[in-house]
Amino acid sequence: MKKVLGLFMLFTMTVGLFAMLGVNKAYAMGTTYYVSSSTGSDSNAGTSSSAPWKTLEKVGAMTYGAGDQILLRCGDVWNETLTISNSSGSPGSPIVLSSYGTGSKPGIIRNNTTSDLCVKVNDASYFTISNLDIGNSAMGIWFNYNDSFGHAGLVIDNCHFHDIYGVDQFHPSSAFLGIQFSAGIAIGGTVSSERPDYIMVDGVTVTDCSTYDAGSLMVSCQNFLINLGPTVIKKNVNIKGCLMEYNGIYGNVISETDGGTMEDCICLYNGSRQITCGSTALMLGVLWNYTIKDCEFGYQQRQGSDPDGCGIDYELSCHNVTLINCNIHHNAGVGINLFHNSNTDWYSDYCTIDSCTFNNNNQNAYVASGYEIYDNNGGHDYRYGAITNNTYYPMPGIGFINAYSPTTTLSNNNSVSEPVSVNLALNSAGSGYPEVSASYTYYQDNVWQAVNGVISYNDTPRDRWTCYRYNSGSSTDWLQVDFGSAKTVSSAKLFLYDDGGGVKAPSSYNIQYWNGSDWVDCAGQVKAPALPAGNTENEVTFTSVSTKKIRVVFTHQSGSYSGVTEFEVYGNNLALNSIGGGYPAISASYTYYEDNIWQAVNGVISYNDTTRDRWTCYSSGNSTDWLQVDFGTAKAVSLVKLCLYDDGGGVKVPSSYNIQYWNGTDWVDCAGQIKSPALPAANAQNEVRFTSVSTHKIRVVFTHQSGSYSGVTEFEAYP
């Protein structure tokens, strides 16, 4: 995300010059050096964009002072390590390593060996790195401090880290002494003797960065002194607006730190590589006086026989750490793991977990704990703390917390019977229905990412759809969701992407539905905000309509095009439970062991054999089977839609089916059932209307064809 720093009138002309050169920020004046792998020469002076240096080796041969800037040309790539030593800025006048020109971020891209490093900065203070593409290495950026203390003022902004792996505690590298595993950012080094304090850096800011298949965003530097025990080496570490996804081990690690915040960050789908010590979306350890707020930790993976796979791991010695207003969901292990590592004295205390949401965790636990929060020491690993005002969506057999200390306050933690989300457009799998399409998609974007559940306004990675064109194109474009069957919808949310350049929030937009033969404007549209706003949520409500397809039509601003990082559509399918926990709850007389019953109500319609997004009762041995939805409270129901799965072999459409409701004591056939089509249809929507009934539970009873069993890819219920 772009930022502008205002200066006094004295520097107005300088600011204008920097803007023309593509520099994101302006600082007190020093010397500006330019580097280009495509047009430069190390024999040049390097002090103008028309005579840049060529290599990073040349950059590293120099020393730098307050206000100096080292600018790499956008679109250029280097395969060498940049090492800077004996160089520090001053407060208000940092040394800046950034970019100039237009186009993609300048890249430092290595060879993926276990000794590869992109940037190493030795013993520096007041040093800013921004707008770089860092990848294909064992370590991204390393601020190295060996027996070097009392430094300050590190900033890493708008950098993208990717394909950074190869080093972990079981596969150490002599190139990175004191660094525990591969990561985008490492801060620390080795210490040879004991001292009163070990603060290497006071003041670290990481903003608007992103990772993809890195070990982690940041890294632990534990065990840098033999027998030292838990020790702080960083103070006031602030992380904001970062996206961490598909990392090999962790989303992020905050450790050996006193003070700071992590806010507005997203950690999704991390833990993609084998690590026998376990993975987690957020690792906390040796941490004092820290706040994590307004963050999302979801879909953490667990590989093979690895432990953990949790949302957040209080690994050891966390003191006065506050976790507030965070969403912890769909993780392989527990939502939060409370642990003391290898020493029972390294417990956490005076910590707070408040106003967080837990749902659908314990997806693939190493050892089933049965809880959202698990204390590994029977309540002794989290002392003198508070766990308050949290919301959790109960799954069968999953409680909130296994044990807690009598010194910890546990209050107002509520189990609720409604799912977190009923977004009918969500398709995190990228296949089947809902299906997304557009009038035009820019070649570097992916239209599916408009409905994959990830909201990111970062420039990289490109988690968005845009209709950007190099040449003049249409003044309007559309983005469409096909539900696969008719849905009743009444609102939509658009998370509009705006890069301040070729892609901007549209001048206007309009929601339309498909009436079977034509596109029609949705009636009664009320938009908030009234005018389209970039890089934020735009919500529109309208008169409820039943439709198979819905779209948004954008009218572009002059000279730019529109973009969306997420398109969400909401309706009133009473059976929908996209989170897999809480109510509506799904059950069946029998479920085939390779199927997942929850996928019958998760909002995804897919008749594809290999994606297995379905419920079947294959091999039940019964002539009839049932599939049931428990709403958790009485609902008025008059319509059921069944998307019947048929593989042409052991699973076929039933010979017949019947809708029943629970009257409080028994199951009763719904009166006046009218089915369309009249006979069950394979791999298609089957609709049945009946006299409206108020009930807590509804089910469908299948009578199987001879020699086969029934299956459903989606079961929907409507008022």
Automatic annotation (TrEMBL):
GO terms for molecular function: hydrolase activity, acting on glycosyl bonds. Coiled coil: none annotated. Keywords: Glycosidase, Hydrolase. This is F5/8 type C domain-containing protein. SUPFAM superfamilies: Galactose-binding domain-like, Pectin lyase-like. Residues 419-572, 615-719 form the F5/8 type C domain.
